[in-house]
Batch of 3 targets.
Target 1
Amino acid sequence: MSADEAAYDNYVVFGPDANCTLALCPAELSVYQYQPTLPGNICFLLFFAIAMIIHLVIGLKWRTWFFVFCMFWGCVSEIIGYAGRIMLHYNPFTFTGFLIQIICITLGPTWYSAAIYFTLYKIILYLGPQHARFPPKAYYWIFIPCDILSLLLQSVGGALSTVSDGSSNAAVNVSIAGLSFQVFTLLVFISLTLEYAWRWQRARKASGVKEPLSRPFKIFVTFLSAGTLLIFIRCIYRIDELSEGYSGDLIHNEGLFIALEGVMVLVAVYCLIIAHPGPVFQGFDDEKALREGSAGAHLERKNTKDIPLSPPLPSTAPHAHCTKNVHAARKYGERKSLTTSVIVHWLQQTANDPRAIDLKREGGAYLYSSLGWPRRKNI
């Protein structure tokens, strides 16, 4: 202990009984050994507040309740956390400010991870669950409970810091365990996502489907991937930061904290604004798609414009072999000259042709009603 530090032996610099202030003790004696920047922390607080409002507006518009719930509480956690760092700016020795920021800033990205996990379920339904290794709902039933466990471990670590005056190694170890489990869960999530993408692409090549994905969907996936990667990098940094407890070198480096915690998470939150699932999945009913087994079918069928259905209809219906067969069927139906045998033949011969799905759904109900048959739910 240096002579300068010995001069402050009568002061408590850390814990609930801390009596040091900047007027009495230098910031270098505090747990972080620096005075957190005021402009930087105010900017983080304001930008997270703006992101929270944007997520709320988009979520309410598109009714993406689970996604917006997670993003809202993640932003609230970040706002409270940076308010704690503003408290530390005015008094680096305040134990209340220290606990607020260490708990809330650590927990924030756990909420974002849960939102990201849920989007994989939507993506799989949209592209086709038949390419997934597991049933679509299994993905969020696996990853979201894992995320909750990670949240609980980090919360317990923060609670132990509170009851132990911030000096417990057990508290740090539990927090590290929670962060490590979050990194492991993210790593498995990324691996399974990449595997699904590979299986989906391989199936498309094998089936000869060349229809490109929509531009909004590509943008959605790009920013979702970026947000996931940024949170993953941030979690690795926090594990390294806490690996030496509150006395390590990394925890005393504010520049690294701003770059690898603040900026990484903030950019990830704004990436998830662009990657909000509402606009890209508008009109897509995942529950209906699961019931009808049509999830992903809209991307797997070829463009049916001017492509004849095989095999062709008998010559009694001259135009029914092309994509205009629905209009031709209506014309013949109105004239009462479309026979039952022709319709039965067409339905049977195109039962397994994915290009006929839309035609059947559009024209099937009309054909049945024209012939006086009972209406069927699925054709």
Note: Residues 153 and 177 are 7 Å apart (CA to CA).
Target 2
Amino acid sequence: MANLRTAKKDLRCLLKQTLSQVSDHSIQRQSLAAQNTLFSLPEYQSAKSISIYLSMPKGELTTGPIVIDALRRGKEVYVPYTHKADAPASDAPASIMDMVQLKSEDDFDKLEPDSWGIPTPSEASIAGRKRCLGVQSPEHVGAEKPKGSGERLDLVVMPGMAFDCRFGRLGHGKGYYDFFLKRYQRTLGDLPGVETQMPFLVGLALDEQVLPEGEEVPTDPSDWRLDALIAGDRPIRRHSS
């Protein structure tokens, strides 16, 4: 396990250095290409409810146009909201991520940047927003809740530090998405009459974030694999199963 943690840390350091050298022009060009690829994806077009990460100012594909497009198509749009758990369950990290609904384009425009420069819903606004997993008191964060007690997601657009051609994903090291998906599976995984238990997971990446063919990101059983990977202006990769 120590070797795995070291391998993940080393790869993050390497990618951080690589991404610092990617020009704004390249990010804009790749973002536009990736957005158009996502918009053509049948799973995106048919999704009624989606989660979209809100991008940092530098070092990753921009997602603002995806948020606007989804809202204009009448989709329910959920975005990450990270907060501390006062008394987490034994398998829960100290800080966790929920998905909360954006109400409109105006709501999106009024989000304020956090310390990373990421547009984020204010703490004061959370009580008035729908939450994907329903309302959870701090003492029960991470505990299993009754199935069907929240809002279902059809598709999740995921960020990451590194990706591979076998749909492996390396996040930023906090475990936010992996733990959110675990909680989602507990809570909403077996909704009656729904064939696909989990949302369709799409990774968005700059070309520089994808490892060469034959190389894989270091993963463990808690790491979720993607259903599709969209990297810059590359052709989309889809899981065959």
Note: The radius of gyration is 17 Å.
Target 3
Amino acid sequence: MGIFFTSRVSLSASLLAFVLRGDVSLPVAAAAAKACQNFKIPVTVTSENYIFGLPKFQNNYDLMDVLTDIESRTFATDFHPYSGAMNQTASFVDHAIAHGYSVFTYDRLGVGASSKVSGYVSQPAIQVAVLQDLVRLVRSGQNTTPVGVPKSLVLMGHSFGSILVAAAATSQPDLTDGLILISFSYNGTNIADLDTGYITTVDFFADGNTLFKKSDYDVNVVEFTHDTRAPFAIAELISLPVVNFVAAEFKGALQIITGKYDFIFCTGNCDGVIEHPAAEIFAQAKTFEAISYPKAGHHSNFAFNAQGAYGNITDFRGRNGF
């Protein structure tokens, strides 16, 4: 199946980016005149995916019942959402540019300008395969004008994007020179064209409660992120437990940076949580750094002090020669 992506900045919670370093660094003064280019990139991938075996959602009550089953303590033994498996073919940017980096971003499958597929089909296995294929294209210098062939490449993901990035490096440890996992821990769009297999937060207050921390954000920003939020495929959610993102063979540089009050990955407090077992998992990494970033929740990119987090990320890349 041909899958098309456009390389544009996405405000979805799972933005993925390649941070590229070319042979020539741009001076800070040139950052204001950054050159952005859009590409439609056909990608053909093959991955083993599960077949959604439950009745498709007819209303919010159907969805609520499935989510209740997922939260059940007997989830592992009693919940069987798939009927089989099949093979299917299937701004931080300004800050980075100001420090001499180029950034390649894309919308994941089903989001933004990328191909729309059923929410009962889109799964992490497909998303990881697409990511790995795109990395190979970028590594070879395709769709990287005017950077050309990058001398180094760092994969960066946020939230679900961090899981995909880690999974990509798990099966292909030499895929990237570095990993930056944002709003992540081992502990612990316009949806009119999509089918009922896509879900999203119910309202503005759900976003604020789950993704932000009171007094550390602008209410107008919460409204903006809610209005521009991207949907999540139910098949992506249910199939997460079968994704292997424990990249124990990765030997590059790794940074995990997560808002201290991240509710999704740390249940509200990341202090003392994100360092372990991550440090043990990435025992072979040449460098390891874990930061519980203060005064920020899951959406650390939108906190009042987001520039400080960007500085931590840029400093990490610089210290590791990227």
Note: The chain is about 30% helix and 20% strand.
